[in-house]
Amino acid sequence: MSLFRTSSLALILLILSYSNGARGGPTIKVVGDRYYHPQSPRDYLQTYVILPTDHTSSTSPVAVGIELTDGFVAKASKLPMQSMEIPIGPSTFFNFTGFEIRTTSIPLVGTNPFPFVYWSYNLFGHPPVGVYDKAHFDFHFMFPTPENWWDQEWTSDSHGPCMGGSNETFFKTFKPIPAKCWPGGSSRNITQVGDFVWAMGSHLFDLAAPEFNPPRHFNFTQIYGQYDGEIKYFEAMVTEEVMKRPRGYKECKSLLDNPMAMTVSRDLPGEMCLERKVKVFSVEYRSFSRVPGSCGPLTAETAKGAYPAPAAPVPPNLCSLPAPVAA
User: Fold this and answer.
1) What is the residue extent of each domain of the chain?
2) What pTM, to 2 d.p., does this model score?
3) How many helices (H) and strands (E) does the chain have?
4) Of 53, 55, 223, 263, which residue has the fewest beta carbons closer than 10 angstroms?
């Protein structure tokens, strides 16, 4: 999660790789946007998709990822950041200091469902304090197109009095989702806690994740994004400390709480994998499989994601919320 914007640099490359893909045999790595570190032109962050060399437009990716050179990670704290004080209590504030790029494109090859990554680096992390207030990167792998997200939904006119957003974006953020399309289904693991961030909608926290049991600083985690009655992104959050682990480090997390369906049928990843390679650190989504495009009926029993009663109050004369779903 982050609050700042700047520009990105696009670079399209094709790189052949001869490692074994999910289906065996050689793979091809299709590289998308590359962002160079402003103070270190040799260091960069780039997106990519890995596919079997013999693939078509209906072939599932072996991986969709983002990789950062060792130098980029080492110099993350030198990125041109901005700071602001975020209220986290009646008289308590959090020093939010970060840098972000709003659009880093990913090649739309095979059935890759993510057109772009919206990413940021947070020097002191962000709330909740004691959990995510640790230097880390946020990588929002987005389902909408950049044109839809930035030119139609989150324009300069979408700022306002509702936790920083307009009434329209605030209302859309808390439109309920049928349980079939909700991460975790009818379980209580993935929870709507009343989070709202401009340009991101609501982050859905996994309260069953290690960092909440008991509450402690995280290493990496998976978060889902809610907006306009849909899941709009998968977010990988990874600490700078993890990215500096010794070469050869590799760890995967199974995404057991993925939605059983989406509003549109598409491939979803079943794993998030981190790896410290020879010169780069990679964050990949892997093990893609297709889910149907049908969420089922929205009823009082199936509705998930409404603004919770215990959350921070908002000005009722300025900020409206969707009406409760009828039985």
Assistant:
1) 13-304
2) 0.93
3) 4, 19
4) 53
